[in-house]
Amino acid sequence: MASSGFFSRLKEGLARSKQKLTSGIAGVLTRRKLDEKALEELEEALIAADLGPAAAAKIIADFRKTRFNKDVSEEEVRAQLAEDIAAILAPVARPLELDPARKPNVILVVGVNGTGKTTTIGKLALFWKEQGLSPILVAGDTFRAAAVEQLQIWGERVGAPVIAGPPGADPAGLAFDALSKAKAEGRDVLLIDTAGRLHNKRALMEELQKIIRVLRKQDATAPHSVLLVLDATTGQNAIEQVRVFKEMVDVTGIVVTKLDGSARGGVVVALAEGFGLPLHAVGVGEKAEDLRPFDALEFARGLVEV
Amino acid sequence: MFENLSGKLAGVFERLRGRGTLNETDVAEALREVRLALLEADVALPVVKDFIAAVREQAMSAQVMESVTPGQQVIKIVHDALIAQLGGAGAVPLNLNAPAPVPVLMVGLQGSGKTTTAGKLGLRLASRERKRVLLASLDTQRPAAQLQLEQLAKQAGVPSLPIVAGETPIAIANRAISTARREGFDVVILDTAGRLSINQELMDEVRAVRDATHPAETLLVVDAMTGQDAVNTARAFNEAVGISGIVMTRMDGDARGGAALSMRAVTGAPIKLVGVGEKLDALEEFHPERVAGRILGMGDVVGLVERAQETIEREEAEQLAAKLAKGRFDLEDYAKQLRQITRMGSLSSILGMLPGAGKLAAQLDESKLDGKLLRRQEAIILSMTPEERRRPEIIKASRKRRIAAGSGVTVADVNRLLKQFDDLSTMMKRVNKLGQKGLMRHGLAALLPGRRQSWH
Questions:
Q1: What is the pLDDT of residues A9-20, one digit of tens each?
Q2: Residue A234: closest CA among chain B residues belongs to which residue?
Q3: Domain boundaries B304-447, corresponding CATH code
Q4: By C-alpha distance, which of A299, A290, A194, A175 is closest to A251?
Q5: Which of A121, A263, B252, B454 could be joined to A233 by an S-S link, Cβ 3.0–4.6 Å?
Q6: Longest dimension (CA), chain A
Q7: How near does any CA of chain B get to the CA of A101, in Å?
Q8: Which fold has domain B3-86?
Q9: Is B96 helix (H, G, I), strand (E, B) or coil?
């Protein structure tokens, strides 16, 4: 999925968010020696990037070990900080790969309301379509007004069929029918959209479990991926989101959306440390080609502006 | 995760007290805990700093230093300051004091819940304030966004502006206002496309809409889960269009909602409404005093008390208290408690509102202790004789079989209920022993048995 222009775009998006972090770091460096006060300010700069107090403290603790009381240049501090963050992120930077033997690869897309599930599905479908694969979409959000129509418009753009039912239809039933159809037609990938739901609503989370149970009646290995779509503007609650979704529906990977805004998505660092779930892709715009693979070092560099 | 600030602060001060009188460094340490709690709650860093600076002086006062409960004192100071910064006690109503049709403009980032909120607001104004409301979507960006508002309007029983394909947002806004004027509407709610605060082009567009319509209210719709970026978003929208009020959505989630404080601090605009569910009537007034406790991880105590007051008969409660004091709590009382709990809503949501009970709520949630189980337990008790309810110890094998058959459960279920009642009695005795003061100091955790309670 890699393509040129991504990093410059990502950087662009991060530019504003970086301002504060960067000016914070620059302020630190006028002192030259990395002392307690400077470390504290660095920690605060990371907190302001949504890394969360705990992850920020850990990174700064590592920093203290190697850099404390040394004369350092601004570039050195940034490079080191980026490396530290990248080291945490590197193990989870894994693209979403399809098994070509599977017809279809079943991908269930979940998340809280408004994170960009439907848009992400549209983008993924277009990406695979352009690779010569045949995606099929399921409008499993039968709750929200016009969610079905939103996915159908994406289906038209992509040239992929969309399986939809009447409003309030059982999403598990839809998914089941779609899987039969996808199998019969030898489709490569089945993307299942679901209604946004807050992770603390038990009944709604159980509805997701039902979709999985029903899919497994046809294919015991399905779903092959459960993607959690996470909004980059989300703060520390993202940790709770990931914890509960993982526990309830065994999330296999994360897509972070809306990284083209001023939000930095720093909570991703805490997520990588806490859960180690693969970070498949990031959304950096509303167009289909704005879904990009997640690159740990570039992301970390973007964050601290190397 | 940070569970309870009161507990932490009590810990800090207890540790310090060992050394004798408190000094300024001690209070500073307590304030560091407050700072951490606010950051965990997603209050933006610059806002946290200003806030801590503002409460520092008060926290250094003799009142705190000489207090026997400095932790509680600091909590109170912080809590009061939070309420003040969130806008003071009480709700701020929407300002619709303008010649009809009054335009209300909804703005915000993508996915913050603008369209759903527009639908909810339409229903609220139509049903509560008997206004004639017209809903119009200016979102020409997201696929099917206009259709979404149209469908929501239908659900709410509120008219919406007919969709004309290919129209620009400005043209839609003008058509909405002229239609509303012609057809005698009181309020026009203008829903706009989600936009990033750094997207100049789209910000210019929404400014043009504002200039064309002169909204009486420009509401910034914000997700309660928003992190540090809340300040950037609030500042950008406020600078571009001028915000008159804020709507926090998804307050029915478990985010601590620190963004409320950040937004309010940056824009100075009051938080007017909160979204608390997916149903169209799930839009409420904002009460700073409730959110303050939530940000501190202390739970929405006011909300709990209010709900409890609505459902628990005062007399019943007093009788129960008297029985508790005497250490006489029988299955009859237990059944009453179960009924009250079912009336109040799910156990975990109630516990979520209690200070220090966050963990317990999670455990309960895991154990699926839901309304169904409570009703089943009530059925078991109802199958007992009055004598058995008063003296559960007489319930032996054959009585258990009869009770199980009478309530349609197994003997194991009856055993489980009796065991739970036993555990609860033990807990009640502990309450008595701790007394009111002990409960305040240690919170609910003091009541929990050492090992994890099994509910199954």
A1: 444 544 444 444
A2: B226
A3: 1.10.260.30
A4: A194
A5: A263
A6: 68
A7: 33
A8: Four Helix Bundle (Hemerythrin (Met), subunit A) (1.20.120)
A9: coil
